Amino acid sequence: MGKASKKKHAHDSEKSLPLSDAKAESAKAKMSNKEYEKEMFKLQTELVKLQEWVKATGARIVILFEGRDAAGKGGTIKRIVERVSPRVFRVVALPAPTERQKSQIYLQRYIEHLPAGGEIVIFDRSWYNRAGVEHVMGFCSKQDYTRFLKNCPSFEMSIVTDGIILLKYWMEVSEHEQHKRFLARISDTSKRWKLSPMDLESHRRWYDFSRARDAMLAATDIPQAPWYMVPSDDKKRARLNCISDILSRIPYEEIPYKAPKLPPRQKPHGYKEPRLPHQQVAQRY
Predict the structure, then answer these.
(1) Which residue in 13, 32, 77, 259 is deepest, having the highest Cβ count within 10 Å?
(2) What is the Cα gyration radius of the chain?
(3) Nearest Cα residue to 240 out of 80, 78, 41, 40
(4) CB-based contact 225:168 (threshold 8 Å)
């Protein structure tokens, strides 16, 4: 991605979009699979270039994704990491804390996953659990919640001051679209596992989560680590727009590639392929 292209992406991403207009933004003509895959391949090629730059420079990057259930976080992350190395792009999706972790400093279990040099860490939900589900569902005290909103900006400023690039994305799905996606999960046998009791509760308590989102954004949208909103009713456009924005905010450069020359294979020196006595999978396809 050239400098002019990067500037364009950066300029476009600065356009603010009220949350109430997220649904209207997604009401464009449906993007064809062919067009989508073509644009996605271009972006994934740039992600490979970003990967090589990160390895060469020792850069440290954190990208965190937040949003309501069924907002499209997992699908976006899947397309980001599809063609890159898991040794460079690490996805962190932490389970519920253990009893021991509950007794630790709240941010402690997240800090240990922050990147070393040459790594990009993607949080599929992050420390913002405290401002969302933990607060709404009563899994933390009001004091814990208030303390988090107060201290979180300082924590993130310390991350950025230490040289880590921190990008925060909120996937914004409309009430109608979330309902539609939940129904699809119920009817699709391959997606039923995605619908948890917590998802059902988040569906019921839509406005409690709306208030929690508003308070979180107001308290933690700081210049050093701003939130970037991703309208996600249209999954294809949401993924393309989000990945494009990520690329526009990291000052990577293409590292020159020197194609290696494959060495000739060694001589067999009498080796012959044996008839392996092991069972073979049925050739059904």
Answers:
(1) 77
(2) 22
(3) 40
(4) yes
Task: Pick 3-248's CATH classification: 1.10.10.10, 2.40.10.120, 3.40.50.300, 3.30.465.10.
Answer: 3.40.50.300
Residues with Cβ < 8 Å from 138, sequence gap 6 or more? none
Give the Cα-Cα-Cα angle 44, 47, 49 (nearest 5 degrees): 120
Closest by CA position to 74, among listed 140, 160, 169: 169
For residue 140, count other CB atoms closer than 10 A to its CB: 19
Tell me the β-bridge partners of 7: none
Instruction: Summarize pLDDT for 140-180 with one digit per residue, the tens.
Output: 999 999 999 999 999 999 999 999 999 999 999 999 999 99
pTM summary value: 0.88
What tokens were used for 133?
């589900």
In this structure, are residues 125 and 158 in contact, taking their beta carbons and an 8 Å threshold? no
Inter-residue contact 52 to 255 (CB < 8 Å) = yes
